[in-house]
Amino acid sequence: MVDNINAPVLILGGTGFVGSRTVRTLRKLYPDLPIAIAGRDQEKARALATEVGNAGAVRVDIRRADLGLDAGAAYAAIIAILKENTLNPLKYAQTQGLPYLSMADGAFEIGPAVAFHMYKPQSAPILLASHWMAGMATLPALHFAKKFRSVHSMQIAVVLDPSDIGGPMANADVEELMQNSPRPLMLDNGTWRWAGDGLSSRNVKDMTGTEIEVHGMSVLDALSLAASTGLNSVRFDYGMGQTEGNRNGGSPSHDMIIEIEGELTTGDEGRARIDIVAPQGVSGLTALGVVLGIERLLGLSGGEPVAPGLYFPEQIIEPAHAIRRLTEFGGQIRQS
After folding, report:
1. pLDDT at residue 181 in the model
2. What is the pLDDT of residue 5?
3. What residues pair up with 159 in beta bridges, in sequence order?
4. Which of 179, 214, 190 is CA-nearest to residue 200?
5. What is the torsion angle, in degrees rounded to the nearest 10, for the CA atoms of residue 278, residue 282, residue 288 and residue 289?
6. Rounded CA separation 215/219 (Å)
């Protein structure tokens, strides 16, 4: 494994909505960390590199096994903030022994990455961060689940503001996920189901008490929450509606509702609801989740650089650290 923290972090898709915010968030937290920005628009990449400093624009061809990079180029990590089906970035990271992070696959799409890891398990640390907001729903959920001795069920609903416009690549990714995904994957009373019409939607009250319809989605969060807590039921849903930020006259926020049921540490049965308002919206919160993965992979926060292996975010990122970062960037958390 290459241990070269003085080399730049290569961010593929670094000029998009999420990519550019990832670059800026990474620079805010780590002013001296070199960054290499790869994007289809080289002019935008150069402008962003100049803006953040200690950064450069790189031309990448993901159709090539070597990504079109110079043979002598050195990088600290490969971060894929894009949807691509070649796995060339992952294979390049394995060849070079570099930490790798991906964040654009549904629960039914991670098979190829898992297979490549299984054949080269000691080549590189691979972080599958294709969770909602790169883990920024699952990590807070696990943080608050620690108030329970055992968790029986967990439901997460996220509210997307129609005026929170994402980039063309992100919108295409969501559209592809919705078109190609099987029915929503959820754990229902101990049984995994691709939910049909009877289970695929439900109603939830938003932060004003208004009831909105939300729909199941096959993201990796359900897998992470089930495997890490041992609960019997878990589902993840999304819906459209006016968010807190927009409602209060500001920019659209990204709102999340986490509901947990189980046995409290007191021994009583209990239920908790956690409402989270992220003022930076969808792209900003996703960028923060990606940066948490980058800083942990490289050992910039929370311990030594991560050893080769296959990981979900909650396996290497402390949930309490995610909460600290969330509030540091203006997130509001309400418990009931």
Report:
1. 60
2. 63
3. 239, 255
4. 214
5. 110
6. 12
**Strand runs (DSSP E) across 220-304, as ranges?**
233-240, 254-264, 269-278
- Strands (DSSP E) contained in 16-172 are 35-38, 55-58, 77-80, 100-102, 125-128, 148-160
From 117, 138, 90, select the one nearest 276 (Cα to Cα).
Answer: 138
Residue among 134, 112, 318, 282 nearest 221 (CA): 134
CA angle 203, 333, 315 (to 5 degrees): 90
Specify the pairing of strand 309-311 against strand 125-128. Answer: parallel
Question: How far is the CA of 300 from the CAs of 35, 197, 202, in angstroms?
Answer: 14, 45, 41
Are 313 and 129 in contact, with CB atoms under 8 Å apart? yes
Say how many residues make up the chain.
336
The residues with which 254 forms a beta bridge, in sequence order, are 278
Task: Compute the distance between CA of residue 16 and CA of residue 22 in angstroms, rounded to an integer.
Answer: 9
Instruction: Return d(Cα 124, Cα 126) in angstroms, integer.
Output: 6
Pairing of strands 148-160, 233-240: parallel
Q: What are phi and psi of 185, to 5 degrees?
A: -85, 130
Question: Tokens 């989270």 sit at which residue?
Answer: 276
Supply the pLDDT for residue 1.
41
Inter-CA distances, 246 with 23, 39, 48, 204, 253, Å? 25, 31, 28, 19, 7
CB 156 within 8 Å of CB 222: no
Residue ranges for the chain with pLDDT beneath 50: 1-2
Q: Tell which residue, 63, 72, 113, has the closest CA to residue 96.
A: 72
| Amino acid in the structure at residue 174 | V
